[in-house]
Amino acid sequence: MIRRSSVLLLLTLSNIARADLEEDPCACSPNKPGFFRRGTLLGYDDLRADWKDDGFIPQAVYAGEVFAAPGLQKQFVVAGLFSLSVDVDLAKAVHDHLGSVHASVLAIHGDGLSAELADIYGVSGNVAPQDVRVFEAWLEQPLGPVTVRAGLLSADQEYVLAKHSTALLNATFGIISQLSTNLAGHPVYPYAVPGVSARYEGSDVTVRGAVFDGEQKGEHGIPDGIGPESLVIGQVELARLVTVGAWHHSQHGNGYFAILDHQLERYVAAFARVSYSPRQLVSTYIDTGLRIGPGPFRDNDFIGVGVAYAQTSDPMLGSQPLLEATYQAQFGWLTIQPDAQLLMEHPRTTAIVATRVTVVF
User: Fold this and answer.
1) CA 20 to 30 Å from 247, out of 135, 182, 212, 353?
2) 68 and 340 in contact (C-beta within 8 Å)?
3) How far is it, in rounded angstroms, from Cα 186 to Cα 219?
4) Residues of the chain with pLDDT under 70
5) CB contact at 8 A, 309 and 299
6) Which residues of 305-315 are buried (b: 16+ CB within 10 A; e: fewer)?
7) What is the DSSP letter of 361?
8) Helix (H) / strand (E) containing 23
9) H or E element in which residue 140 lies
10) Would you state the pLDDT for residue 246?
11) 13 in a domain, yes or no?
């Protein structure tokens, strides 16, 4: 039995590292970390603000999208994602020294273009197998200078991310597609697996490390066991500018990455990522891009431009350059986002146009 004095000591130490939920007004999808819109279709904005002050943050979002690609057999596709999530700041709701709880459920429908394109990116970061499933469900607790998160975790909520790429629709501008492709999609949206993640946040350095179950077992996101494989990933961010890290999967091998992510001036930010995975399907990956906004045209709008390049070891896939440009127009609870992509594969180049409409209920 843990003595009461030990518990009190841990709670006292935990107050050092507590941090509030970080919002990302630029995020184009509710499956991206920090997605939040202050307006609601149902008009309970003031009530939700009061709930947030009390530490309770519910969110219901639907993102529907239409993609068109002339020249493909299926030239026109429709898909959608409904996300229901809740965050509870236990420090506000229960006790000053406690952490937070998060849970989310997804309902996914429709089709994408990637099945026919056979690209390694994922034209849409929302498209996934049709399902109603649990996504993440975790408890986070500060312990001294370190914050520990445990439960059902997805690596794309914390690792190998560029915060200034989140306006872009292509899945590779979340967590890089090199990792998700080489690890057969796990643990990346819509899959979360049992895991433990820890972080240390100092004034000039942030260190993160995690251990995940290496494969998903169970249905609808509910695990029925722990597999024999494991994924270990870690990264160090220096001066809020440069991040370096690596991952090791017990079956699929290693990967190494570096990230530059910086606000250049008031309206313009830039990102760049490079990664190398020896003896894996996607051996080399590079992306870069710009984010403009919020403003200067409308106060809450964002422009995103991204370029990605992936080199594969499969002669049929070869190398795959990708270009994307997008405009995110926010109207309170409604976001309308036209998007254009150019995917250059061997032996064809495909132009893709899309519109995503996101509604916060």
Assistant:
1) 135
2) no
3) 14
4) 1-21
5) no
6) bbbbebebeee
7) -
8) none
9) strand 131-143
10) 98
11) no
Q: How far is CA 310 from the centre of its chain?
A: 19
Q: 137 and 152 in contact (C-beta within 8 Å)? A: yes
Phi, psi of 117 (to 5 degrees): -70, -30
pTM: 0.92
CATH number for the domain spanning 158: value is: 2.40.160.180
Cis (ω within 30 of 0) for the bond into 296? yes
CA distance linking residue 130 with residue 173, whole number of Å: 22
Q: What is the pLDDT of residue 18?
A: 40
Task: Give the span between the Cα atoms of 354 and 339, in whole angstroms.
Answer: 5
In a domain, 344, yes or no: yes
Q: Mind spelling out the 3-state secondary structure of 42-72?
A: CCCHHHHHHHHHCCEEEEEEEEEEEEECCCC
Could you read off the pLDDT of 240-265 as tens digits, one per residue? 999 999 999 999 999 999 999 999 99
pLDDT of residue 10: 35
Contact 17, 146 (CB under 8 A): yes
- Closest by CA position to 79, among listed 128, 32, 31, 121: 128
Instruction: Give the closest residue to 324 by CA, choosing from 345, 338, 313, 310.
Output: 338
Residue 16 lies in a domain: no
List the structure tokens of 201.
């946040």
Instruction: Count Cβ atoms below 10 Å from residue 162 Cβ, excluding itself.
Output: 26
Report the chain's terminal Cα–Cα distance, integer Å. Answer: 45
Residue 118: domain span? 23-354
For the chain, what is the domain count? 1
Bridge partners (DSSP) listed for residue 231: 212, 249
H helices of 15-123, where? 45-53, 90-93, 114-117
